[in-house]
Amino acid sequence: MWLPALAALAIGGWGITVPSLWRDESVSAVVARSPLSYMRQLMGEIDAVHALYYLLLRPFAAFGGSEFLLRLPSLIAFVATAYGIAVLGRRLVGPMAGLYGGLLYALLPMASRYAQEVRSYAIVSFVAVLATWLLLNALDSPSRWRYVAYAASVAVLGWFHLYALLLVGVHAVAVWTARPRRILPWVLAVAGAGIILLPLVAVASGQRDTQLFWLHPPGFEDLTAFLEEIAGNAAAAVVLLALAACGVWWSRRTPIVALWAFAPILASFLISQVYPVYDPRYVLFVVPAIALLAGIGVHAVTTSLRGHIAVPIIAFALVGALTFSAHVAIRQPASRPDDLRSLSAVLGAEQRPGDGVLYVPQRYRLFVSVYGEPFQKLTDLTNAPGTYEPRTAAQLTAAAAGLDRVWLVAPPVTPRNIGDPRFVELRRTFNLVSSRSFGYTRLALYVRKGR
């Protein structure tokens, strides 16, 4: 059972500090390093759904907050998930099915990528595995404390990511079909978890428009892209799905794994047609189930061929070969949506004493300041003095009166940010000298006209 964990540790630790932290990771790191008073304010305004993760991250951020330390909780969760898959597979089918499933999970590029990310998604996957294991324990050997433990795991799952509660629907079907007499204690356990989650739901429901305004209804091509993202490319996805299909047939008497692998994706897709909630990261918690199904499939084919050792060797060699290029790609320095390390290096090399900086929109301050030293040397023109409100155009003009150079940190140029009053005012009195993109973040230098 430890072999998948060791494989996950080796693969997840490979190149963990090479990719630059990107905007989502920057937010995590900056908030985790901030005073609790600032964290409370942010949670109240926009980011309550990540409160538990930010609290968990604080000790890692306190000890220097290096890229390795910040990403370490996700790596630990990745290793624990691989181990948990092996344990689940042994319980449901047999030790070899668990071994194969855990090893396949460690080989999947999408799981490996989020093992190297300062966000909660790898932890959500682990808690999903843990909750499923605790449910099986409660169903097989019912006791009050087993259901309490399961309820606690569901509450933790929701506090790490509310949309992961789609797993509870899978558990409901599994309980109803496998142990209908256990439905009442299960309902009570879920109700208890719901009470613990009520404060988060109440706050987060009012923050959706500011937190998830960018989501859109997905199409069928998004589902195809998700499967390719899991495996790294189309060929690897075909092999993975073929093995998972064998696993569905072999484990038809334990349908909880198949439901867990596909039902949350379908539910998220259908809900998103009217109320967008779908993003590949938000359904990452199904990947352990897909890996377990594929592992069961390897075991099924091996058993059908009288335990021929060539079957798992060929299967893992094929998956490893097909996913290798994706693993290499996600470990490149600029492989994330933003290359904030390079942005910070350029700013540090080219800034001059007395330069100013303007973040449009102002949330870009959080997005880029994980590599904060160069930004600390600049005069921040973004907020009105003593407030968290952005300056007006007139306030910006007054604040920049003594400055000859201003650095703009913003998204790529769009009609939306071109019309921002501060951006309009900046262009009125300053000339654009240079503009460089570091992924989805742009760094531009403006020099006062006539200078």
Instruction: Please give the largest β-sheet.
Output: 5 strands, mixed
Rounded to the nearest angstrom, the distance between the terminal CA atoms is 68 Å
How many extended strands?
5
Q: Output mean pLDDT.
A: 92
- The fraction of residues in strands falls at 5-15%
| DSSP helical segment count | 23
Portion in helices: 55-70%
What is the number of independent domains? Answer: 2
SSE order, one letter for each helix or strand: HHHHHHHHHHHHHHHHHHEHHEHEHHEE
Task: List low-pLDDT spans.
Answer: none
Shape: elongated
- How would you write the strand order of the largest sheet? 2-1-3-5-4
Determine the structural class based on helices, strands and strand pairing: alpha/beta
Radius of gyration over all CA atoms, rounded = 24 Å
Transmembrane segments: 68-86, 92-111, 118-136, 148-176, 183-204, 230-250, 257-276, 282-302, 309-330
Protein name: Glycosyltransferase RgtA/B/C/D-like domain-containing protein
Keywords: Cell membrane, Glycosyltransferase, Membrane, Transferase, Transmembrane, Transmembrane helix
Domain Glycosyltransferase RgtA/B/C/D-like: 60-200
